[in-house]
């Protein structure tokens, strides 16, 4: 469904907004889902579904900042045990954060678009299977959405 929708719409903001809504409606036992986009060395809140959220996250803060700086997916079974966790919603117990990279580029902070952040009110909500499936969706999003300020390929 996501691939079909992304292929039929060309505006990046419309694309990411509806992908956010589709994922939020499709996943069970989650209380927040959204994107933080990298801008000037910090993560800025993008389209999301759920309660109000932190608008800016430093790259050295929280699960989102850690996933961005480590350039890898972080699956946290208990956010209260994650050092530096940012508690935007006290009802959140587990979290999955997946970095998004510009396509055809080696994962690096210079090619980072931002992160897909998914929160759950259930401890250990996300399995390895969930992670792998959502990582594939994140790769699809990265390859199909023409985010603004994309670096030129093969510079």
UniProtKB/TrEMBL annotation:
Gene3D superfamilies: 3.30.450.40. This is GAF domain-containing protein. One of its GO terms (molecular function) is L-methionine-(R)-S-oxide reductase activity. Transmembrane segments: none annotated. Belongs to the free Met sulfoxide reductase family. One of its GO terms (cellular component) is cytosol. InterPro entries: GAF-like_dom_sf, Phosphatase_reg/MetRdx.
């Amino acid at each position: 469904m996501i691939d079909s929708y992304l292929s039929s719409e060309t505006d990046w903001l419309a694309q990411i907004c509806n992908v956010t809504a589709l994922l939020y409606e499709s996943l069970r036992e989650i209380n927040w889902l959204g994107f933080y986009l990298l801008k000037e060395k910090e993560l800025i809140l993008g389209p999301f579904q759920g309660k109000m959220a932190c608008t800016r996250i430093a790259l050295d803060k929280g699960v989102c900042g850690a996933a961005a700086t480590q350039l890898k997916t972080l699956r946290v079974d208990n956010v209260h045990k994650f050092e530096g966790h940012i508690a935007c919603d006290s009802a959140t117990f587990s979290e999955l954060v997946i970095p998004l990279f510009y396509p055809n580029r080696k994962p690096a902070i210079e090619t980072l678009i931002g992160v897909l952040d998914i929160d759950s009110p259930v401890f250990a909500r996300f399995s390895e299977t969930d992670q792998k499936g959502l990582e594939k969706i994140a790769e699809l999003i990265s390859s199909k959405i023409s985010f603004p300020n994309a670096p030129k390929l093969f510079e």
